[in-house]
Q: What sequence folds into this?
């Protein structure tokens, strides 16, 4: 009996043919969406969305971290050439007595106020971002958040000369805009990501944060040392405007709204998520707030953010004041750790999906 094409049958029954599965068909079945090998991500609209979200989070970090680096250049003493050709190294005292070449004379308390003001706004719009994403679309909220902060970043060199409290107000507003970004992205994946790929797509997007931290440290130091600190804001603000334009043109809130998504991929996503329902969702808020695992996640996430943002905010100044390192050199030393975090996050997301879909672990265990 031909074992490749027929199966055993009971006596008196005709054998039925079993079609052979060709290698190409196996590849498509293994991927699940019928769009070919999984590494060809550009064929899949959901991975294009994830890639643009990656660069969106990248821009988010450039808008957040840039001041932590440029403030050193803005307030540090520097060498001044006098009219007779003599060169003096300014200190704060010399600057006050001899010249006003140093841009800003901020004491440590003022610097702390400026650097911390971003987070006053950032913490206020976290819940608002999730709510707005549900009612007006996650793609709109995410794009507006980064666009608004980008415009403020672009004009920061103008605002800073109006006074320190004007700069504080601008940074609070940037925090208000960027505070919308994280929660609305979770809403985006609820409609774009099949359950078997949700960790992978989320990890690709969120890794842009750490790569953005890496890029900001390297680029800000180099730009400030070679062209002056205002150009850090001009470059990153301009990049945010370009990214926002592409995002609004390309990304739609749901697959069904995207005119360029293939029918295969749209069906694959919709089938994996199940039928839509118009039933009102009743959220058990009391159970949320009295759940120990819920509070455990809040505590862990708060501790992680505290450590990460403290490093982002204070590390450049520490390396300049205590290790006497130039901005470019400190950026090159600091950046690899954040890059490693981004790579690890992407690998962990793919691993998490594989462990769940293979049945080795549950989502809770992962």
A:
């Amino acid at each position: 009996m031909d074992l490749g094409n027929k199966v055993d049958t009971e006596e008196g029954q005709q054998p039925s043919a079993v079609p052979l599965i060709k290698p190409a068909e196996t590849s498509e079945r293994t991927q699940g969406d019928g769009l070919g090998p999984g590494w060809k991500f550009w064929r899949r609209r959901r991975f294009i969305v994830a890639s643009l979200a990656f660069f969106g989070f990248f821009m988010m970090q450039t808008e957040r971290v840039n001041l932590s680096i440029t403030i050193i250049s803005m307030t540090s003493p520097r060498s001044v050439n006098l009219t007779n050709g003599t060169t003096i190294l300014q200190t704060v005292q010399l600057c006050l007595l001899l010249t006003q070449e140093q841009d800003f004379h901020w004491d440590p308390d003022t610097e702390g106020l400026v650097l911390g003001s971003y987070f006053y706004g950032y913490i206020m719009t976290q819940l608002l971002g999730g709510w707005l994403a549900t009612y007006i679309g996650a793609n709109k909220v995410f794009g507006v958040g980064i666009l608004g902060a980008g415009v403020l970043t672009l004009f920061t060199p103008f605002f800073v000369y109006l006074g320190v409290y004007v700069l504080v107000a601008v940074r609070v507003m940037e925090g208000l805009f960027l505070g919308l970004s994280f929660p609305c992205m979770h809403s985006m994946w609820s409609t774009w990501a099949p359950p078997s790929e949700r960790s992978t797509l989320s990890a690709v997007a969120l890794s842009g944060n750490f790569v953005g931290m890496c890029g900001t440290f390297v680029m800000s130091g180099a730009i400030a040392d070679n062209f002056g600190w205002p150009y850090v804001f001009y470059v990153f603000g301009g990049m945010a405007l370009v990214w926002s334009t592409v995002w609004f043109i390309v990304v739609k809130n749901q697959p069904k709204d995207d005119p360029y998504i293939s029918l295969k991929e749209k069906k694959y996503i919709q089938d994996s998520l199940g039928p839509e329902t118009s039933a009102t969702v009743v959220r058990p808020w009391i159970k949320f707030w009295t759940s120990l695992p819920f509070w455990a996640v809040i505590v862990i996430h708060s501790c992680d953010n505290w450590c990460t943002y403290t490093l982002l905010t204070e590390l450049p100044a520490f390396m300049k004041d205590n290790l006497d390192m130039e901005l470019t050199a400190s950026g090159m030393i600091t950046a690899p750790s954040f890059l490693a975090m981004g790579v690890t996050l992407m690998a962990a997301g793919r691993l998490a999906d594989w462990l769940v879909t293979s049945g080795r672990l549950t989502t809770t265990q992962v």
